[in-house]
Structure prediction request, 287 residues.
Amino acid sequence: MPPRDRLLNPEATGAARSLLYSDKGGPMSNPTSPELEAKWRSLLLEGHTLRWLHAFFRHMPSEPRCKLCYNPFGGVGGKVVGLFGFSPSPKNPNVCSACCDRLPPGGAEIDIAVLFADVRGSTRLAERMTAKEFAELMNRFYLAATRALVKHDAIIDKLIGDEVMALFIPGIAGKQYRCRAARAATDLLEAFGYGSESEPWLDVGVGVHAGPAYVGNVGADGMVDLTALGDAVNTAARLQGLAKGGEAVLGESVYAEVRDRHPDLPRQEVTVTGKTEPLAIRTLRLT
Prediction:
């Protein structure tokens, strides 16, 4: 029986059954009640106080920062705001205590834009450098990418190896979150030297897609992370894999928001791993 059929079969056992039942033998409950989901939806779509906090804190030094309000955890700025409760939360060190106290468990499904940026040829770069030199280069990559993305009120979801993942959520990035994701992709490439007279100092490709995703606190007790899950996230990662250095591959719905700025990008249909239907994309290249 194919794996998918086993999950749908009420007699599912083993690993498949563990997805449906708790360790105590009973069915797992929905991690987000309707009431909590409503709170998350309000937070993610309306933003409450997060938007002005994000705009204020992004001008204060220094990294690392809270994923939500972007207050600094390090440097002088971190010491100052830490006095007012904006220190890393013991529940989620990527979010400050002030924000984490306001976040209920669970999450909600909403429409967001997702951006992935990746260093091309990082394996070859690592072979030619010492580990310390490569780490310094990646730190420079993280810093440049983060600064470019936060200008557009992105949430920096993950810094993994040679890759950055960012979320553009209506309650923080505003109603034009898809447009801001596309413009952030352009600014990010410019941060690495594309579109200028000088040579790029790092080979970077970008993918951006938008669609429904589950956004919230994901993980087990004692180890949770504010992140996004779903097809939109997976598709953005696949589009990033199609991008060459200096390119931003945009999903069609994202491109529609910046068509006036880039009216002549040809439409392509591509098939990516894990998708049954071809995807319409537009490729923006900075030279």
